[in-house]
Amino acid sequence: MRKSLLFLMPMLLLAATAFPQDAVVGTIRNGEGTAVVGATVVIKGTNVHAIADTSGRFSIPAKKAYPFILLISSLGYKLEEVKVTALPPAPLTITLTSDASLSEVVISSRRRIETAQEVPIPISVVSGALVADAGAFNVNRLKEIIPTVQLYSSNPRNTTLNVRGLGSTFGLTNDGIDPGVGFYVDGVYYARPAATTLDFVDIEQIEVLRGPQGTLFGKNTTAGAFNITTRSASFTPEANFEVSYGNYGYIQAKAAVSGPLSKKFAARVSFSGTQRDGTLYNVVTEKHINDLNNLGLRGQLVYTPSDKVKITLTGDNSKQHPEGYAQVIAGVAPTLRPAYRQFRQIIADLNYKLPSENPFDRLVDHNTPWRSGNELGGVSLNVDAKIGNGTLTSTTAWRYWNWDPSNDRDFTGLAVLQLSQATSKHKQWTQEVRYAGNLTSRLSGVVGVFGIWQDLKTDPAHIEESGNAQWRFSQSSNSELWATPGLFDGYGIKTTSRLKTFGGAVFGQLDWAITDQLHVLPGLRYNYDKKQVDYDRQTYGGLQTDDPALIALKNIVYTNQTFNADVDESNVSGQVTVSYKPTKGVNTFATYSTSYKPIGVNLGGLPTSGGKAMTELARIKPESVKHFEIGVKTSPAKNATVNLVYHHTDIKDYQTQVQTAEVGVNRGYLANAEKVRVQGVELDASLKIRSALSLYGALAYTDGKYVSFKNAPVPLEETGGPSAFKDISGGALPGISKWAGSIGGEVVSNPGIILGQNARFFAGADAYFRSSFSSSPSPSKYLNIDGYTLFNARVGFRTLNGLTVFVWGRNLLNKDYFEQLLPAAGNAGHYAAVLGDPRTYGVTIRYSYHQ
């Protein structure tokens, strides 16, 4: 792929030929003549806006009849108004002056253009420029900037995206459950969590909303939402190119070209590719594995038939094809099983030795290749029409996901589980129509309808197959029949399943300005969900025999399972927020909301009791969420913000993923905990001193626990005890660190001459830390992950002609740390780890061209 990345760069540069100019363009600088990067330009009275690039240049479509006023704002500068009476014959030059007052980040999460400090919602905003400079090219790296975000991924399908520790089940994914964190790109909902492992492509801004957001977004979001905006097609020629090189054979290339096709049409094409060699070494194949191999393409066509209508057609495709996501054995827990069933005795009897007892030697000997073929893509059509004092928006989208994996779920060089391949295909269709705007001088809001149709099916079947060492790991008695030659070799299950769902909603939220200082914001949502499941699992292979005793042994490992489920339900939820602004620099708010996650269905196999599948677990109850938070957003000093929020969430019938000792349920199954509670305090702050210094930081205290979970599976070390279930009420929820935080900033020099160009040096650094957390749904003393701290830095220069060069390093102290721990199928005692990346470093060269 490296050759293709390098080849595409000059091709895309050639594509940036001059297009006819038909927009208001210009450059924004400060009093020192330095480009003001990230300045916001808005046509007053509309939601049409643009963001200044790294050279301070902007291009904004003239979508309002002349004359109109441009509002130009940036952190630490006075708001500037520029009147435009006609299309300027030459680019504008706009100078901003520094100001003690603080201009704020512009967001669109409430379906209007407003500033983050004005919004009575806990929200974190990360610009595309910071995403690029910090190397946060996917959600997993973004969590190092936003500590309230948690992402755990043992492969793209088995990905957990949470906010404040809530949202999705922790551990291996069960396809029959809805995510609780909404993931939106340009207004399109992405249903599959695998999307979060792909590279961002041409990002303008990422907004992370914390807490339930079902009255603002089409898909119900019980824990939060990602609102990602990509860069829009421009009506003036522009091109952006970037290439990075680093250790471990790292190369990343990005490019985007955009410009008008005519007076009413503009186009944009974006590309991103990432390649890196593996960070684990397979001592048997003598190959490095866990590489990166990502490719993303995005195309956009914008049509503006009038100044009141904008139509955007977007298509995208992203792929991952690494030999990756392998886990390395991290340790062995003694269980309550007899001595002959302990992991170390088992491997001694099989004359096997682990390649290393230290997981950070990064050595494996897996005998099944790791494959994570992950492909997502789709097409969307968005129509924005200004009607009255608001905007009517229609977003129609079709998306697909193809999943082609291969895993070694026993994590050893033994043929225990020699095949684990859950190949799947998913299609979704979504339609959202909403109206957002001012209803009266005191009343504004958003109202909408949303529908989503999903079809998820095996392709053609999910396969789990045992090898010739399975008998020793499954052996549960001293009977010599377990050692019958070939009894389990090639014995497995083929599962065909199909999940068809429909979700519909009507939602709305009002903003009633009782006074200029006091606002009341009620919201309401009606949700309807229908799910149809057909599940059929059949055994195959192994020793063909009529001996009832041998058949009974085989049935201990795998059994046939068939069930159907049909879910049809509706729910009403809502929220009310009271916002009070006692002064211009202080915004206080309090919110109470209820939310809801639909019934879940088990699609990973059911546990058995008395040799029969527990079909009563085929479906699990919906979640019922009650949420309260109170917060304050302040601007206490020149160019500074300090925000504080307390949140408290109670969930009844919490949907959780639990591990079982049965090999036939090796991805776990869904269950309900009677009640959980998450509460905490979050502090975030920022400071900017003109254009010379910017700082940001966030600190989160989060306490999550099972208030009541009386029938939970036992933890790994209690496997084989008198009971397979345990009351873990009062135990910690998995994946939640009590303390997490991030801090970062950048210092910029005065303008000077670098390589014969007007330029400024810059140096940036950031740190992320989190305290210890549980990596098991049932708290285990062996599956706890120690806290860790990561340091990253970058230093380089930016010229005024669009060239940026910097060197960077991530995990500079080369900290060894786990991202996730998970037991092997069958609970023999050994458990594996998803390892964090070692120290990486490299150089990035970026160039931006604008006419």
UniProtKB/TrEMBL annotation:
<dbReference type="InterPro" id="IPR039426">
    <property type="entry name" value="TonB-dep_rcpt-like"/>
</dbReference>
<keyword id="KW-0408">Iron</keyword>
<keyword id="KW-0732">Signal</keyword>
<feature type="signal peptide">
    <location>
        <begin position="1"/>
        <end position="20"/>
    </location>
</feature>
<keyword id="KW-0813">Transport</keyword>
<keyword id="KW-0998">Cell outer membrane</keyword>
<feature type="domain" description="TonB-dependent receptor plug">
    <location>
        <begin position="116"/>
        <end position="225"/>
    </location>
</feature>
<dbReference type="InterPro" id="IPR012910">
    <property type="entry name" value="Plug_dom"/>
</dbReference>
<dbReference type="Pfam" id="PF00593">
    <property type="entry name" value="TonB_dep_Rec_b-barrel"/>
</dbReference>
<keyword id="KW-0410">Iron transport</keyword>
<keyword id="KW-0406">Ion transport</keyword>
<keyword id="KW-1134">Transmembrane beta strand</keyword>
<dbReference type="InterPro" id="IPR036942">
    <property type="entry name" value="Beta-barrel_TonB_sf"/>
</dbReference>
<keyword id="KW-0472">Membrane</keyword>
<keyword id="KW-0675">Receptor</keyword>
<keyword id="KW-0812">Transmembrane</keyword>
<dbReference type="InterPro" id="IPR008969">
    <property type="entry name" value="CarboxyPept-like_regulatory"/>
</dbReference>
<keyword id="KW-0798">TonB box</keyword>
<dbReference type="Pfam" id="PF13715">
    <property type="entry name" value="CarbopepD_reg_2"/>
</dbReference>
<feature type="domain" description="TonB-dependent receptor-like beta-barrel">
    <location>
        <begin position="360"/>
        <end position="812"/>
    </location>
</feature>
<protein>
    <submittedName>
        <fullName>TonB-dependent receptor</fullName>
    </submittedName>
</protein>
<comment type="similarity">
    <text>Belongs to the TonB-dependent receptor family.</text>
</comment>
<dbReference type="Pfam" id="PF07715">
    <property type="entry name" value="Plug"/>
</dbReference>
<dbReference type="InterPro" id="IPR000531">
    <property type="entry name" value="Beta-barrel_TonB"/>
</dbReference>
